[in-house]
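Protocol step 4 of 6: structure prediction from sequence.
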Amino acid sequence: MSVISVGQAVVLGAVEGVTEFLPVSSTGHLKIVEGLMGIPVDDDAVVGFSAVIQVGAIAAVLVYFFKDIVRIVSAWGRGLRDKEERYHHDYKFAWWVICATIPIVAVGLAAKPLIQGPLASLWVVAGSLIVGSGVMWAADQMGRHKRGEDDTTFKDAMLVGSSQILALLFPGFSRSGATMSTALILDLDRVAATRLSFFLGIPALTGAGIYELKDALGTGAGAAPLAVGTVVSFVVAYASIAWLLKFVAKHSFNAFVVYRIVVGLLLFGLLATGTLNS
C-alpha cells in the first residue's frame, strides 16, 4: 500500500509547483504539509516522492524557457566543434551551468545520510525559513541591481550555483532564495538573478529526481501518486514561473521575506505545542 494517496499527491504536487521557484522553500513547505497530513517526512518513499515530483517543476522550466535552452545548448554544441564559437556567451554559459552544478552534487552524495536524517527535522526548517529571510532582505538591500543576464561571469555562476548547498543542508532556507540572494549580492538585477536561479536549478533538481526515483518506486510511494503529483507540479509551476518573472521586474523581495518569517514562526508554534511532530 502506498504511503501517499492520490489525493495527497495532488496537494503535494500543487505545493511543489507553487513553491519550487519562489524563494520560500519548496522542501520546507512540503515537509510542513506532509506533517499536517500525517505523512512521515523522514520515510524513504516520502523523501523520494518529494524529489521526483520536482521533475514536474523542472519540466515546466524546460517548456517555459525552451527557446533559451535550445539557443544555449546549440551554442555549446557548436563550440565543441568550432573554436571561434567558444567566445560566444551562450557557449560559456552552458559550461558554467555544468561546472556550477558539481558542488551541490558532491555535497548531496556525501551528506545524504545527514540530509535525510537530523537535518530533515521541522525545527531545522522553521529556523532556516527565518534565517534565510534575513539573508534575502540583506541581499536585496545590499545589491545595486545594475548587471543584467548578459553580464554574468563564471565567478557569478560558481558562487550562485554553490549557494544551492545551503538549501540542500538546511531545508527551509530555499534553493531559489539562496541563489537569488547570492546573485543580488553580486549586483545582478532581480530578473537576471531569478533567471540564473532557474537555469542553475535544471540539472541539480533533475538529477535529484532521477537519483531518488528508485527509492520512491521501490519503497511504497506508488506509481499513480508519483504520476499525479508530477503532472500537478508541472502545471502549477509553469504558472508560478510566469508570475514570478513579472513580479520581480517591478517589486522587491520584501513580500517573500515577510511571508517566510510568518511561516517560520507559525511552524515553531505548531512544533512547540505538539500540533506537529518534528
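Step 5 (inspection) to follow. Residues 6-272 form one domain.
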